[in-house]
Amino acid sequence: MNNSWGAVIVAAGKGTRMGYAESKQFLLLQDKPIFIHTLEVFSRVSRIKEMIVVTGAADVKRCEEWIHKFGLEAQVRVTAGGSERQDSVYAGLKQLTSDYVLVHDGVRPFVTPELIENCMEAAMEHGAAVLAVPVKDTIKQVNEEGIIMSTPDRRSLWSIQTPQAFRLSALLEAHERAMQEAFLGTDDAMLIERLGKQVKVVEGRYTNIKITTPDDLDYAVFMQKRGE
Ligand SMILES: Nc1ccn([C@@H]2O[C@H](COP(=O)(O)OP(=O)(O)OP(=O)(O)O)[C@@H](O)[C@H]2O)c(=O)n1
Ligand SMILES: C[C@](O)(CO)[C@H](O)COP(=O)(O)O
Question: Cα(first)–Cα(last) distance of the chain, in Å?
Fold first, then answer.
C-alpha cells in the first residue's frame, strides 16, 4: 500500500460570524493573509506532495496571486468551493491523486508541522485521525427554553480541530454517500463515523484555534506577536 499525502485547505467561507466585509481568510496577520500563514506551515511538511486551496469562485484569481507572491505556486493549486464547507472539501478532494489526505481549515494558522505529522502517523495506523483537545469547561445540554437537560461526563468530551486525516478513497466515498443521503456534517470525521468506521483522536494544542469571531482575531494578533 502506498503512502503518498495530499492536503485540502478550505478557504471558501464567508466569515459571517466575524462580521467583516472581507472574508476572514484574506485578513492580514502582520504582512500576510491568514490562509497564507496556514499554507506556509503545511509547506514545511515534506511528505505532503500536493496541496489544494479551495476558495470562493470569485476569489480564485486573487488567491493565486497571493500564493505566487509568497512563492508557494510550485506546491499549491487553487480551485473553487461551494456554499457549505462540506461542498468545498469535496471540490478539493476531487483534485487530488494521493493515497491519503489531510483536510484543514484555512483559518487555523497556528497548527504546527509536528501536529500535522502526528495526525498523519495516526491515520496511517488507524485509517483516520483528527486533532482534538479535551474540553476545559463543564458542558451542559440545554433545551430550547434554556433549561439544562443533562451534564455529560467531561472526561469523554473533546473539542475537535483540524487537520483531519483519511485515506483519500475512503473520504471520497464518505462524501458521496453523505451527498446521496442529503447529510450535512460540520466536520469530515462525521462522514466517516456514520459509515461505522473508526477515527482516532490525536491530542492537539489549545493554540490551534479556528479564527471564527473578532475575539479570535485579537488572540491571533497576540499569538503572532509572541512568535507562535
Ligand atoms: N462554504 C464554505 C464554508 C466554509 N469553508 C471554510 O471552512 C473553514 C471553517 O469554516 P468557518 O469557520 O465556519 O468559516 P466561515 O464559513 O467562513 O464562517 P461563518 O460560518 O462564520 O460564515 C474556513 O476555513 C472556511 O473558509 C469553506 O471552504 N467553504
Ligand atoms: C471542522 C471544524 O473546524 C472542527 O472543529 C469545525 O467543525 C468547522 O465548523 P464550522 O461550523 O465551519 O465553524
Answer: 36
What residue type is 25 in one-letter code?
Q
Q: In a mutational test of the pocket of ligand 1, which residue from 24, 42, 107 has the highest number of ligand atoms less than 8 Å from its CB?
A: 107
Confidence check on the interface: ipTM exceeds 0.90, yes or no: yes
Cell of 100: 491519503
Choosing from 18, 24, 104, 105 the residue with most ligand 1 atoms within 8 A of its CB, the one to mutate for a pocket test is 105
Prediction pTM value: 0.97
Q: Which pLDDT score, from 0 to 100, does residue 53 have?
A: 98
Instruction: Indicate the burial class of 125 (C-beta count within 10 angstroms; 0-12, 13-18, 19 or more).
Output: exposed
pLDDT (tens digit per residue) in 44-77: 999 999 999 999 999 999 999 999 999 999 999 9
Ligand 1 binding pocket (C-beta < 6 A) is 10-17, 25, 54, 81-85, 88, 105-107, 210, 212
Residues 6 or more apart from 146 whose CB is under 8 A from it?
Answer: none
